[in-house]
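Hi R.,

Here's the chain you asked about this morning:
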Amino acid sequence: MKANRFANSESTAVGIKPMPRGEPIAINTQAGSTVAVLALSTLGLAACSGGSSSSPSAPLTPSAPSGVTATPGNNQVALIWSASTGATGYSIGRASNSAGPYASIGESSSTSFTDTSATNGTAYYYVVSASNAMGSSVNSAAVAATPVALSRIQAARFFAQAAFGGSDTDIQNLQYQAQGVQGWLAQQFAIPVNPSGQLSNVAWMQANSLISVEFETTGVQSSLWRKLISSPDVLRQRMMLALTDLFVINTGAITLTYRGAAAAYYLDQLEANAFGNFKDLLLAVSHTPAMGEYLSYLGSVKANPVTGTSPDENYAREIMQLFSIGVVQLNLDGTPIPNPNDPGVALATYSQTDVLNMAKVFTGWKLNTAATAYLGASAATDMINDPSGFDTTEKTVLGQTIAAGLDGEQTLEAAIGLLMAHPNMAPFISRQFIQRLVTSNPSADYVSRVAAVFKSAQGDMKSVITAILTDTEATSDTLLSNPLAGKLREPVVRFIQWARTFRLNFSPTAATQWAGIGDLSSPSSRLAESPLQSPNVFFFFQPGYIPPHTALQTNGITAPEFAITNESSVAGYMNFIENLIADGIGGVPGNYNALQPLVNQGGNSAALLAELNVLIAAGQLSAATLSLMQGALDTIDVTTMGTNARLFAALTLVMCAPEYLVQK
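And here is the predicted structure, written out as tokens:
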């Protein structure tokens, strides 16, 4: 009952004089008349007041919660609010628009609640009401949130590893991807080889009348740039580049008449097997005429005691040294196994005897001259084995025996199987893929985790790629400040990032335009690196390279890309990138339309730099660096020099900044 509260309120409002209990109460009105009010019995007053005029009021319905905030996460939204006086619990409602209706999704006894039934990319509105024994409050003001898998910077950082950076649209799509990174990976794995609008390298060269041009390599170079820059299966293309770093050929050093066709077929085999099994990838590479000719086992035949000839050892050595198990025995974490008789020397993986026996495997291989569909077709199809030149004797490799009497194909498959079963295979290959995608100096634990997946999945590339890109050493924000983490971005990756981010708008069929990119390997004027242009089978830089006379050497940190980093290549890159940003390449400029509104937003370059910091540098530019850049850029008068002057300068500064060049 509320008699006392109301009585106190009335006496305060109209100033009535308290009367003795049990007598009628007279109230003086403004008209001066007296109104008789029914007198309450002493017993009735006692029952209402508890015999005291100072008894506390009954509980009130709580007020609506205030200060409600919604923080989106990965498939969830976290809500917090300020406590409502007298509340014993809270109810949370959710709707698809601010007007409702709001459906109850849960209750909380505290001032927080996490909606774990949300879907990334869907906008939600939330209200909270408070309750106690007396009832429920009205709803709070509505708040909105759209859950995302990753922040913009986290998404951009992932694309720096898994792709060649990402556009604003790419970043948003990943943020709203319902299954986050795993969902994006599944989508990429599901894209077929040569998706709609993207011909294979061989087919594209045929379509442009380039497949049958003798000794010409410009066509295959153009076709590869086309794929790396424009194909939607960006993860496959990122792996393609990594595979050309590992399985090296140089088109200029191949002496086949139709070497462009041979190189195109080699690239098609890398693409076809990039998401398959590593064993199949090794088999496919070993069948290509390009590799057969480049590493000189094409035409190698069994030993002839009469002439004194013996099988060529080149590929036999390199398939072990570079393409599978390496030269020293490794633990699963990639660390060398010391020699018990000489701890300072690691145990060798193979011997010269192993090389000699492996060389027998690669005898009898020749071009398939029956392939005559077009000029150069024999260079663009698998080699076949000629029994007359093949060594059928027993072969002992790495302590294992390949039986005598097997044919060439059976022997090759058995030899690749021996390599796959070797304990070095998983750590040796896993570490190199980690280096190409995430960090030059991965920890032993990182290598061990990925190698364990390689081993258990028996070389399944999808499993290995997923393990690399989702490992905590790839995704943890704490590693951004770790000086041992990250890698120097390959110059070619920087170029492709620019081309993809700013939509270098070549037609996929424009052979002349793609040819305008050409060979980028000049250190003084271009990138000091270019696919298919390596000076030797060891590529432009080796996985174990440590820059001498540096802090990296002092700390034993491998940094392969520094092998092509010097005064000439640094200056060459800066000049190349400045011209690229301003003028484009192949006669086609970049598309900067999305950046134009930011060039002078607020009368300065802060918004432009903030966006470039995400799109290009994945948020790695420090506040101090951004401040220095802005100070320089704001001196450019856009009213007289035009917005492009500031935009080009900003992009050049970002792409030449050390904090960008070192990918974290």
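One quick note: The two ends are 68 Å apart (CA to CA).

Cheers,
M.
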